[in-house]
Amino acid sequence: MSTTALAGVSALGAWPLLGHGADDAGDNRPFSFDGLIAHARQLAGQPYQKPAVRHEKLLNDLGYDAFMGIHTRKKKALWAGSDQPFAVEFFHLDQNARQPVAIHVVENGQARPFAYDPELFRYDDPDVARKLPDDLGFAGFRLVDQRGDGMEWLAFKGASYFRSPGGLDQYGLSARGIAVDTGYGEDEQFPRFSAYWLIQPQTNDDSITICALLEGKDITGAYRMRCRRPGDVIMDIESHLFQRTAVRRLGIAPLTSMFWFSETNARRGIDWRPEIHDSDGLAIANGRGERIWRALDNPPRTQYSAFMDENPRGFGLLQRDRDFDHYQDADVGFERRPSLWVEPRGDWGRGHVGLLELPTDEEIYDNINAFWVPDASDAPDRSWRFDYRLSWCAEEPHPPQLARVVATRTGRAGAPGNYDKQSVLARKFVIDFEGGPLRGLDDDSKLELRIDASHGEIVNPYTVKIKDTARWRAFFDWSGELPPADEPVGLRCAMVRGDETLTETWAFSYFPQALPRRLSSEDDSNA
């Protein structure tokens, strides 16, 4: 690995960065984040060396069931049973996480490698324990609260991925340190956190600081993450990035989630559950002060949307629908999946929030990616600094003062009795807004819709107050021919009263396609 190749000449000194063998638990060495930044910069000036997969045949042969029978011995976790606020449990290598990461513990500015030890784990099958070598290594780690409820609240495993169950204690979407060329198929790169430094907290601390070295073919980086759990899980991240080569799409603060179907695109017979998604929308607070809600979709083909901006105030993939009745799955708790909000610190300059949506027909695949793409990442030898806060939360930390989108529905255009008179491509959109300036409005208030369509025309737009609720509903139909080059139709809608905007801006990408004429048919293709 490249960290090993540079040991002894880097700004970190002769440091055994691998740290996966018993012999690596040597003397303490000085550690500083400035030194890690210098090391990452130095690595970027060296040829990339792809990390080798160690014990590959062994990991392949053991199989999924064997790895499911490997458990952490909680009493042997780092800092377990001490007066430290958190314990650290470690992940075993497996079929999907095959490259060991180096773990270091830093106390009073001195760092020591934390060596792999099979005794940290319990094995359901004794044969598995006998097969595993003593230098196998760790795949990652997780933090466990030792003062309150004893819950696991943050985990790092695989490439630069990490995730948290947030304040509602349910895992869902993930974050990454960086995304490189996401959306370009096999050309996408997955840089990895190859080494971590866990800064030992003081007894009365409510946070822990984690430093990490990022290594990839096109980019290196140094990360410092202050992590705490005051209710929601909050991470203040400082990142320093150094490009070796030009990239087509550099994703900063990338988020990864799953959206299969909801009331927006549900079709009878897909699944017994009414909705299946970890997130239902991308929220953006742009640098111009506009609040945007982009309802997520499971598109018929890969779709990339770019929201141009300068110095964004925030963005995130949110789960706004918190009603169990809308999911009906008590085992997985979709209604408790965390939202994840990115809040930039300082000016991020010009660029765009990118949203990549991939088609999926299963909930096991993450098909949604969102990130910030700075301008000029297509030039080599660039260095960047991006500081930001991540909030794993039930509700976005800075909600708009405007009314929010709470549901998006689509269906056949027209009115009952005249559906057959409509084009099979026409579509009705029904958007529910709630809160903000809509609170307390009379049911007969005259509200209008400001709607834009990139192609086609808008037909019969109107608004109604939903009786006995706090919601207002927008209706409109889209009608038109297929857009040029088979592109989706970009739609935007906001509720207004005169010159006053009352709601955040709803956005959607609609791929015109025929709907079934009947709810059931031997052949729905004859729509």
What does this structure look like?
The chain is mostly beta strands. Helices cover 7% and strands 40% of the residues. It contains four helices and 34 strands. It has a 16-stranded mixed beta sheet that branches. Strands 3, 7, 8, 9, 10, 11, 16, 21, 24 and 25 form a ten-stranded antiparallel beta sheet that branches. Mean pLDDT is 91; it is low at 1-11, 13-25 and 523-527.
Task: Sum this structure up briefly.
By secondary structure, this protein is mostly beta strands. The protein contains 4 helices and 34 strands.
Low-pLDDT regions:
1-11, 13-25, 523-527
The average pLDDT score comes to: 91
Number of strands: 34
**Gyration radius over CA:** 25 Å
Which class best fits the helix and strand makeup? mainly beta
> How far apart lie the N and C ends?
57 Å
Give me the number of helical elements: 4
Quick one: overall form? elongated
Give helix % range: under 10%
- Strand content range: 35-45%
- What can be said about the biggest beta sheet? 16 strands, mixed
Keywords:
4 helices; 527 residues; 16-stranded mixed β-sheet; disordered C terminus; mainly beta; single chain; 34 strands; elongated; ten-stranded antiparallel β-sheet
Q: Mind sketching the topology for me?
A:
Layout: H1 2-5, E1 29-30, H2 33-44, H3 56-68, E2 70-72, E3 86-92, E4 102-107, E5 110-113, E6 121-123, H4 126-131, E7 138-145, E8 152-157, E9 161-163, E10 174-176, E11 178-180, E12 192-199, E13 207-215, E14 219-228, E15 233-243, E16 250-257, E17 259-261, E18 276-277, E19 281-285, E20 291-295, E21 303-310, E22 314-318, E23 339-345, E24 350-357, E25 368-374, E26 383-393, E27 404-412, E28 427-434, E29 448-453, E30 457-465, E31 471-479, E32 489-497, E33 500-501, E34 505-510
Parallel strand pairs: 4-12, 20-34
Antiparallel strand pairs: 1-5, 2-6, 3-7, 4-5, 7-8, 8-9, 9-10, 10-16, 11-16, 12-13, 13-14, 14-15, 15-26, 16-25, 17-18, 19-20, 19-22, 21-24, 22-23, 23-26, 24-25, 27-28, 28-31, 29-32, 30-31, 32-33, 32-34
